[in-house]
Design brief:
15 strands; single chain; 34% helix; Rossmann fold; alpha/beta; six-stranded mixed beta sheet; 13 helices; four-stranded parallel beta sheet
């Protein structure tokens, strides 16, 4: 699928939400000022726990979703369609099955929602360069949004970045720096983030903390859109690497709960290509490495964050491991239903099957699957015959 992107958007002067107080620790609630650099919570780090931060709003704030900016940079992201899939619902034995199609965002993935807020923050703080570690959808999104906003963009990629993504970055004028592993990529971003005028969009810490806290807020409106388009789901199934999207969904539904617009939180299920969060939920260390190999390019990686742990723990959800063969079988089913999905997103269907088999999802419930991107740039596409 081709996703047209504006060459240059009209410049804007970001306006912060007056309800925004600053940043707050996800674990201990310690409060900190908003900065361009994201180092997590120093108080928790002193205890040996590596925890990220979140946006903090005034205690009397009850609107939903609460967002850090009243006016910000945009290329028209959001408002993506939600599709009802009654035939697949019957096949998997649930009352309702819905797909939220994030491939309809300007650059073709859910990352545009996070990037838009990230670029807004960069403009707000007078930054001149967006820097991030990504070899996939986040890289493409950041490159196009930065170009449209008049910012430079530097991307730390893996050595073997797929050609389709490399071409997209080159076309948007981003500078690419290749590294063999996460340690090299994150060290590069960390060095840049320490320089004046650089804004780091994605994680650059080890143990991992997650992406820029205000930027992650960009995912919260998905919850409101889902409620308006298809009603409150009982379960949300999310392909997950370090949990930015999963946590953003949790935070969005939490805002709706506080505002009295919903009566309960949906259970969030993180879909992973090999056991990471699953092992943490079984007692493994949150800051350990859990390496594995996978063709599910967008959710590869060996790290777990407090973000993703909180998203599933606070909602009564969990983690589901879906191997590549299971994900490919699910993608074939989706193709028959005329749905295009990157491999990790297709894995959500296999996760649903597992959750039904173990009775974690009941037959009378509504399940929402997040389609993070389509198959057009997926390096695993087409699937082996």
């Amino acid at each position: 699928m081709t996703h047209p992107v504006c060459a240059l958007a009209q410049p804007i002067r970001p306006i912060r939400n007056p309800l925004l107080r600053g940043l707050q620790c996800l674990r201990c609630d310690a409060e900190y000022p908003i900065r361009l650099a994201h180092e997590g919570c120093p108080a928790c780090r002193a205890e040996g726990v590596h925890v990220g931060l979140r946006a903090s709003y005034r205690a009397d704030a009850t609107s939903a979703p609460l967002m850090p900016y009243a006016r910000g940079f945009s290329l028209g992201e959001g408002g993506t369609p939600l599709y009802a899939m009654p035939d697949l619902a019957r096949r998997f034995g649930v009352a309702r099955l819905s797909f939220k199609d994030e491939s309809c965002n300007p650059t073709g993935s859910h990352k545009d929602r996070m990037t838009a807020i990230g670029v807004t923050q960069a403009l707000d703080f007078g930054a001149h360069t967006l820097v991030l570690a990504s070899s996939g959808n986040a890289a493409v999104s950041a490159a196009h949004y930065a170009q449209a906003a008049g910012l430079a963009c530097e991307v730390a990629t893996y050595d073997g970045m797929p050609a389709a993504y490399a071409r997209a970055l080159d076309a948007a004028g981003a500078r690419r720096f290749a590294f063999a592993d996460n340690a090299g990529r994150w060290a590069f971003v960390r060095e840049r983030a320490a320089l004046a005028g650089y804004f780091a969009l994605t994680n650059y810490s080890l143990p991992a903390l997650g992406s820029a806290p205000l930027a992650i807020e960009g995912y919260k409106p998905i919850a409101d859109e889902c409620l308006e388009q298809g009603g409150l789901p009982d379960h949300v199934v999310v392909p997950t690497a370090r949990g930015d999207l999963a946590w953003g969904l949790f935070a969005g539904f939490r805002d709706l709960l506080v505002a009295g617009r919903i009566a309960k939180l949906p259970r969030i299920w993180a879909v992973e290509p090999f056991a990471r969060l699953s092992r943490v939920l079984e007692g493994g260390a949150l800051d350990a490495d859990y390496p594995g190999r996978t063709a599910q390019f967008s959710t590869a990686g060996a790290t777990v964050t407090y973000l993703q742990w909180q998203a599933v723990a606070a909602t009564g959800g969990g983690a589901v491991v879906v191997g590549d063969d299971q994900a490919r079988a699910s993608r074939r089913l989706l193709a028959q239903a005329r749905v295009s999905a990157e491999l990790c997103a297709a894995g959500g269907l296999a996760a649903l099957s597992q959750l039904r088999e173990r009775s974690a999802i009941a037959a009378d419930e509504h399940v929402l699957l997040m389609l993070t991107a389509d198959a057009s740039r997926d390096p695993s596409w087409p699937d082996p015959v």
